[in-house]
Write a structure and sequence with these properties.
4-stranded mixed sheet, 3-stranded parallel sheet, alpha/beta, 37% helix, Guanylate Kinase phosphate binding domain
Length: 126
């Protein structure tokens, strides 16, 4: 299923078919971010895709590095304008991956994380 989903996304979003996407998925609080940081520190040239969220930024987080932090109205506008590849409401906040972020580096291999609910929608959407 994963391979066919990626092929469909490549066609739908105009992606370079030679790109490799790594998806790290698990429930909230299972260490996805920790794992991504470790992988990125060891595999140079791999790019992290940054999700957009409406949740409040934590003191240690950097906008554009950990997440793109936006208001609820802006996120809902992105939904309405179909700017998101996938999105989910979790614990009262929105999380999603924009088409712009997916295409920010068209020739880069990429890694990203999603919770289990987002992953199911993402893989099933293609």
């Amino acid at each position: 299923m994963w391979r066919s989903a990626v092929e469909q996304w490549a066609e739908q979003y105009g992606l370079n078919r030679d790109r490799i996407f790594f998806l790290v998925s698990g429930p909230s609080g299972t260490g996805k971010t920790t794992l991504l940081r470790r992988v990125l520190s060891e595999l140079h040239g791999l790019r992290k895709l940054v999700s957009t969220t409406t949740r409040q930024r934590r003191p240690s987080e950097v906008n554009g590095e950990d997440y793109y932090f936006v208001g609820r109205e802006e996120f809902e506008r992105k939904i309405a304008e179909r700017q998101l590849v996938e999105w989910k409401s979790t614990f009262g906040d929105y999380y999603g991956l924009t088409r712009e972020e997916l295409n920010r580096c068209p020739d880069c291999d990429a890694i990203f994380d999603m919770d289990v609910k987002g992953k199911e929608d993402f893989l099933g959407a293609a």
